[in-house]
Amino acid sequence: MVAALALPMPLVAAALLALAAAWLWDYAVVRHLWRPRAVAAAFRAQGIRGPAYRFLSGSNDDVRRMRAEADAAALDVRDHDYLRRVTPHLLAWKDQYGAPFLFWFGPQPRICLFDYESVRQVLWNKSGHFMKTDVHPTILAMLGKGLVLVEGTDWVRHRRVVNPAFAMDKLKMMTVTMISCTDRLIKECEELASNNKSGIVEVEFSKHFEELTAEVISRTAFGNSYKEGKEVLHTQKQLLGLALATLLNLKLPGFKYLPTKSNRLKWTLENKVKMTLMEIIQPRLALKGSGYGDDLLGLMLEACFTTEQGERRDELTLTMDEIIDECKTFFFAGHETTSHLLTWTMFLLSVHPEWQERLREEVLRECGKANPTADMLSKLKEMTMVLLETLRLYGPIMTMIRKPISDIRLGSLSIPKGTGIMIPIPILHRDKDVWGANANEFDPLRFANGITNAARTPQALLGFSIGPRSCIGQNFAMLEAKSVMAMILQKFSFTLSPKYVHAPTDLITLQPKFGLPIVLRPLDASC
């Protein structure tokens, strides 16, 4: 019997060897040699060139090197053209190869677009021809496969559930929470100023805004469970740090399943986020029939149990894992984008005191010295213009990437299936043919007649994206930013600290590398 069982072993070994050879052929030869050469040749035939493909790493080593070289540069505070610091590789390749050009994220081809018409065709496509690209595993663990990342019928299902939570009438009710959280920051700054004989105090606002927006999203998303929400956010920030450390590293197949130190840490953090969110969500589900709360989670759960006709359903529209992913998505995105929007708005108003004064006059005219209401905030037209101009110059997201699900024609280009299409937002936002000769300058007046008429191309502002997949939380972010800036302007004038170093940096989102130290001066002498 033993001898009989041993006989097939050479056959088993041969079969395993054949499988290994087939895998090696597909992975090493097809994916990392033949396919990149075929794709490069197809684009070269269309006149599209770019940096040469390198086995396994693609263009990643060049990106890492050029970013490291550019990182030492500091800019003048009035120089808003930070592209040579943040995206030096894109500028260098555009100058060398023209636009568009082809480059490589590992073995994955990416074509970088620079014309708004092609970008519009990609982002406004409603037929499902363009999908989001595969996401780094750690970013997926941090952000969740929520509305931002799901596709097709899943996106439709998720959108129907999430959309009611971000209706403007619901958001207006959350203004009270935004104002209350901001009021605590204002009082803290007033106390710091009162303890200084000169009445003037220096405050590191990028950190304060991170803490403030964490408090706001925790309370508006999870109500009485806001402390657990802040714990989730802290864990997501740890996952973000882990993702930044490994983003350009070589990715071998199956590597994400190996128990390496970084993978074990990722699994631990991911599980912590999941378990904490489940502890928040499950007690809400037990409230079935008596309402789930008026925060973002409660509104989303209510929609989960409601049909499109407004009737009650017995089963959730989304699974528990999908609800958890949606919580991850709106929680992290809602905090990260608003925090940096506030930081860069504060920076720009410090550099341009004439606009700081204009906004203060508008706030005092519409709101007086009382805490603003949602209706008051809706009347702050110049504030809206400044926030939109901040999104144009210092938007939190540097690029958007899509890939066609089949071979497709985009303008005069034939793009093979699976090719990443990169949309470099800050470069497009500085296109002088679209935004005018002063595209690199801070000029909120360009938005005096709204977003549609701000540039020569309609809807050229990409800060919240455009088309059917535009950011569902943009009204939340704008309302929170208006609330915070209005209350600061009511109480303080401010300038940049001499310690500030203008060095924008891309850490998934655009941030000031050395923070934002601001000198505050209370407007009320009694402070």
Automatic annotation (TrEMBL):
Principal location class: membrane
Binding site for heme: 471
Keywords: Heme, Iron, Membrane, Metal-binding, Monooxygenase, Oxidoreductase, Transmembrane, Transmembrane helix
Organism superkingdom: Eukaryota
MF-aspect GO terms: metal ion binding; monooxygenase activity
CC cofactor: heme
Coiled-coil segments on the chain, per record: none
Pfam assignment, any one: p450
Keyword Transferase on entry: no
Family: Belongs to the cytochrome P450 family.
The name this protein goes by in its record: Cytochrome P450
Organism: Urochloa decumbens
Lineage, uppermost ranks: Eukaryota, Viridiplantae, Streptophyta, Embryophyta, Tracheophyta
